[in-house]
Amino acid sequence: LEAQRIQQRTQYDLEMLAATGTCNGIENYSRYLTGRKPGEPPPTLFEYLPENALVFVDESHQTIPQLGALFRGDFARKSTLAEYGFRLPSCMDNRPLKFEEWDAMRPQTIHVSATPGPWELERTGGVFTEQVIRPTGLLDPPVEVRPVSTGGANQVDDVMAEVKATAAKGYRSLITTLTKKMAEDLTDYLHEHGVKVRYMHSDVDTIERIEIIRDLRLGQFDVLVGINLLREGLDIPECGFVGILDADKEGFLRSETSLVQTIGRAARNAEARVVLYADRITGSMQRAMDETERRRAKQMAYNEAHGITPTTIRRAVADILGELGEKKDGPARGKGRTRGKDSRARARGAAEDR
Known about the structure:
Blueprint: H1 2-20, H2 30-34, E1 54-58, H3 60-83, H4 99-105, E2 108-112, H5 118-124, E3 143-146, E4 149-150, E5 153-154, H6 155-168, E6 172-176, H7 180-192, E7 197-199, H8 206-218, E8 223-226, E9 239-244, H9 256-263, E10 273-277, H10 283-306, H11 320-323, H12 333-353
Parallel strand pairs: 1-2, 3-10, 6-8, 6-9, 7-8, 9-10
Antiparallel strand pairs: 4-5
């Protein structure tokens, strides 16, 4: 069965190549078309870089592990397809570079991260350039630890009071939770108590994510609840409060790197604060707070020596969607899809109620 399946597929692809010059399963034949031997690295952009090129790896603590995972994920998928006759074995050579191949092929490289990973630190031998002084004089935010529950009150009640106080000052708040269910429940709870809140999760596509961040900055809502998306690349000068719920639940979402990155979302506003809700201080929490305090002390010393007063970043809310070609009188592409999903969800809800 597998032999018949792959024979039919290959025969069809060859006929398509002869007739049109293209076929859907080109990954089966790229090794032959490029003259590579089995197991050799595939052609990539890095082969065309000059020897004096300089590569910048942004957010290297995320990018470097992903480079290693690309090949393994591709291999796991294609090995099953090749075993059952859905692909030729040669498809395995149409793949991402292995991490070792990329490391050998890359030119001079600068890794950029607020929380560099072990591989980058090992390569530097402890010698690296640190940029913790900001031109605006902004400091890393003060970090406070509060108990999850005390005297009949809990972290949800406390965070609600904080976001309301922050909104009254004209600023926005970011809240991170551990699970999707908790994020949804917290969003509903805050909404019921009169807080203008939205929830951002992994199912939100890129266009809608841009819309949500823009609406938050414009003040259409005051609080954004998320799980793992309120981290790298989120630059919101209007953010005056970051609340991290269940900060003492040690793990990926509450590791030192995750905590430092989430705390950094409040480093664009001179009045911003961060609250970690925890009943005990974990090792990751202590290291994250120590690192934040170290940077803060260095920034304060520099400001005092040079007479700099920390100033909140002032930046216009760019209409990125307009630049992408969104029509002002029509829905955004992301909006259209989301609206369809919402209407279907409402229809299902109405049917269930009936």
